[in-house]
Amino acid sequence: MLTEGSIVRAFEISDRNPKSWIFKLLKDGEYSTHLGRIDHNAIIGQEYGSVITLTKGEIIVLRPSPRDFLRSFRLKTQIMYADDCAIACSVAGIGNGMSVGEAGTGSGALTTFLAWAVAPDGHVYSFDINEKHLCNAQQNLQLTGLQDNITFKIFDIREKFTVPPLDAFFLDFSTPFEAIDTVTPNLAGGGHLICFVPNWGQVEQSVEKIQQNSELALQQVFEINRRDFNINPKKHIMRPSFRSIVYSGIIIHAIKILT
Ligand SMILES: C[S@@+](CC[C@H](N)C(=O)[O-])C[C@H]1O[C@@H](n2cnc3c(N)ncnc32)[C@H](O)[C@@H]1O
C-alpha cells in the first residue's frame, strides 16, 4: 500500500506522447500538471497501478524504475544511457548486498542503476573529480530514495585509494586507462572492471592497459544496438522508428584474478 514517503510515477493515460511525473507522497501535498492538480492524499492508501481521475484526464500511479528516474534528472554531463547502464550491471552480476565503485559520478545515471541493484543491503562508492557534478548528482539522487546506499566523494580516481574489497568498479570518463592500476587493487578476487568509452582510441588504450596488468583478464568488448518501433494499431503501423540513438559507447569488461 502507498504511504506518506512512497515515491511514485504518475503516468498520463493518453495515446499521444503521454507525460509522467515523479514525486514523493506527502500528507496534504499537491503536484500541478496540465491535467490538473494531483492531490497526494488521493494516492496515499492506494496500490501501485491505481488509476486516479484529475480535472482534465486520468493518471496511473506506478513504481518508478531507474530508467524513469533518469528522465527527471538535471544533466550537467554526458550520461550513460539506461540500456548501457542495465547491461553493464548485468555483465558484472550486480545484485543486493554487493559493494561497487564508480568514477566519475557525472550526473548520477549509472549511480542510480548501481544503487538500485545493490539495495537494500549493498553500497556504492561514487567518485568524481568535479565538485559541481557531484553536487548535482547528489541532488538528482535525492528523488530516488537511494542516497543511504551511496557514498559520494570528490576524488581524482587516478590517485591511489583504499576502500573495502569491491565486487565491481565502473569507469566512465575520457581516460579510464589512467585509473585501471589504482582501481584494480580495490577489487575482490573475481571482481569486475567495466570501462565505458565512446571512441575507438580509448578502447585501444584501455585494452592495452588491462592486458599489461597481470591481475586482470579481459573478458569482452562490445556495444549495444537498440531498435525502437513505431506502433499504431488503428493505422496498422508497426515498423522501426525513423528516429533512434544509433550509437552511445563501448563496454569493456575485465575480471580480477588472484595471482
Ligand atoms: C561522462 S561523465 C560520467 C557520467 C556518469 N557515468 C553518468 O551516468 O551520469 C564523466 C565524469 O567523470 C568525471 N571525471 C573526469 N576525470 C575524472 C577523474 N580523474 N576522477 C574522477 N572523476 C573524473 C567528470 O568530472 C565527469 O563528471
Q: What does this molecule look like?
A:
With 259 residues, the protein is an alpha/beta fold. The protein has 2 domains: 7-62, Vcp-like ATPase, Chain A, domain 2, CATH 3.10.330.20; 68-256, Vaccinia Virus protein VP39 (Rossmann fold). Helices cover 23% and strands 33% of the residues. It contains 7 helices and 15 strands. The protein has helices spanning 40-43, 66-71, 82-91, 109-118, 131-142, 180-183, 200-212, and strands at 7-12, 20-24, 30-33, 36-39, 51-54, 57-62, 99-103, 123-128, 150-154, 166-171, 187-197, 216-223, 229-232, 237-240, 250-256. The strands form 4 sheets. A 7-stranded mixed sheet has the order 9-8-7-10-11-15-12, with helices on both faces. A 4-stranded antiparallel sheet has the order 2-1-6-5, with no helix packed on it. Strands 3-4 form a two-stranded antiparallel ribbon. The site of S-adenosylmethionine (SAM) has 21 residues, from helix 4 and strand 8.
| Overall CATH architecture of the largest domain | 3-Layer(aba) Sandwich
Structural class: alpha/beta
Shape: globular
Helix share, percent = 10-25%
What is the H level of CATH, i.e. the homologous superfamily of the largest domain? Vaccinia Virus protein VP39
Task: Write the topology of this structure.
Layout: E1 7-12, E2 20-24, E3 30-33, E4 36-39, H1 40-43, E5 51-54, E6 57-62, H2 66-71, H3 82-91, E7 99-103, H4 109-118, E8 123-128, H5 131-142, E9 150-154, E10 166-171, H6 180-183, E11 187-197, H7 200-212, E12 216-223, E13 229-232, E14 237-240, E15 250-256
Parallel strand pairs: 7-8, 7-10, 8-9, 10-11
Antiparallel strand pairs: 1-2, 1-6, 3-4, 5-6, 11-15, 12-15, 13-14
Helix pairs in contact: 3-4
The structure holds S-adenosylmethionine.
